[in-house]
Amino acid sequence: MLDPARLFIIMPQEKQPMENVIIIGSGCAGWTAALYTARANLEPLLVTGAMPGGLLTTTTIVENFPGFPEGVDGFQLMMNMQQQAERFGTKTKMGSAVTAVDLSSRPFKVTIDGEVVETKSVIIATGAGHKHLGLESEKLLDTKGVTYCATCDGALPMFRNKPLVVVGGGDSACEEALYLTRFASVVYLIHRRDTLRASKIMADRVLANEKIKPIWDSTVEEILDVKQDTVTGVRIKNLKTDEVSTLDCAGVFVAIGLVPNTQLFQGVIDTDEAGYIKPTHGSHTNVEGVFVAGDVADKHYRQAITAAAMGCMAAIDAERYLQGLAE
Ligand code: NAP
Fold it and tell me: Between 295 and which of 43, 96, 128, 247 could a Cys-Cys bridge form, CB atoms 3.0 to 4.6 Å apart?
């Protein structure tokens, strides 16, 4: 007879259930893809990344998202999208990051916080991050006066009633400059040309604001002062006259555009020369079963509403792909 004390039970290893669709990213594209795939009963798994809600959570008021006549706070808009997607069964991995993807065989394997999860399809909605000037001093003074987000950092005591610099000439730079007028003594807007790229309404607001002083045709050559370990000014060069000068300031807000977040997919998913994912048609990528939506695939429009629309397209494409697998 077996001695019960010597019996041990081998428990079967708990296997992760296979996901229908994993959505990587939680901006407008990601949440909209989640909403549509959830409503298609696909129980999507959405991985938010380290910055849930994406870049829109760093903006103040969003005035051009239809349905909000008075505008809507960027953070609130993303909260609403999350709630709406979760109401229909979206599973959210909040604050989690995808650290690797294996798209070479099916099912696909997505590593989330070190755990490998299998999935039949993937929607890439990883968005874009802030572009940097590429200066050594920018790197060394990051968070010591150099920042990429006025709404996050503008109210810090170190910036209050001080001259501040915004670099760039697009909508982001204009938005940052306008926001900073609440705190700064003066905002210098340094742009490399003599006309703003921003939409007319934003450009007009900036040019009409007495606290904002545009500095045209100029680039920032150096951020000062690395030795003092805090921003004290910038050295700028006028591109038309080659004149070099310095400007005292307590902060430099860099707003010169975006770079797509495609590091995870290098060499596997086709991108264009600027690094944006290049769909083959609709939201389909060169890997069957992998779809793309939002700023990571869009260097032309880059609006909350276009990202949301692309999220909807990716969800519908993924749903049809999964239907095809089931038939
Ligand atoms: P953007 O439209 O690409 O503008 C980037 C700006 O930075 C341009 O003026 C560009 O100069 C300048 N720039 C680029 N690289 C530079 C460098 N190395 N050194 C100095 N200057 C440099 O980027 P964005 O302003 O971040 O806007 C991105 C997208 O989001 C746009 O589609 C925008 O409409 C949208 N957005 C909308 C809103 C809104 O509607 N409320 C707010 C923010 C952003 P050049 O002009 O000479 O190229």
Answer: 128
Which two tokens mark 159?
């910036």
CB 212 within 8 A of CB 222: no
What does the pLDDT look like over 104-162, one tens digit per residue?
999 999 999 999 999 999 999 999 999 999 999 999 999 899 999 898 789 999 999 99
Task: State the DSSP code for 263.
Answer: G
Radius of gyration of the chain (CA): 23
Q: Is 19 in the pocket of ligand 1 (CB under 6 A)?
A: no
- CB of 258 within 6 A of ligand 1: the answer is yes
Cα of 192 from ligand 1 centre, angstroms: 12
Tell me which of 302, 305, 310 to substitute to probe ligand 1's pocket, judged by most ligand atoms within 8 Å of the beta carbon.
Answer: 302
Neighbours of 298 (CB within 10 A): 22
Task: Provide the pLDDT for residue 5.
Answer: 52
- Tens of pLDDT, residues 218-247: 999 999 998 889 999 999 999 999 999 999
CA 160–ligand 1 middle distance (angstroms):
25
For residue 174, give the ligand 1 atom closest to its CA. 25
Say if residue 1's pLDDT is above 80: no
Is 153 near ligand 1, meaning CB less than 6 Å away? no
Mutate to test the pocket of ligand 1, among 256, 258, 259 (most ligand atoms within 8 A of CB): 256
Collapsed DSSP state (helix, strand, coil) of residue 109: strand
With 60 as the cut, is the pLDDT of residue 4 above it? no
pLDDT, one tens digit per residue, over 282-321 is 999 999 999 999 999 998 888 899 999 999 999 999 999 9
For ligand 1, atom 30, name the residue with the nearest CA. 302
Residues 287 and 103 sit within 8 Å (Cβ to Cβ): yes
The string over 174-186, giving b where at least 16 C-beta atoms fall within 10 Å of a residue's C-beta and e elsewhere, is bbbbbbbbebbeb
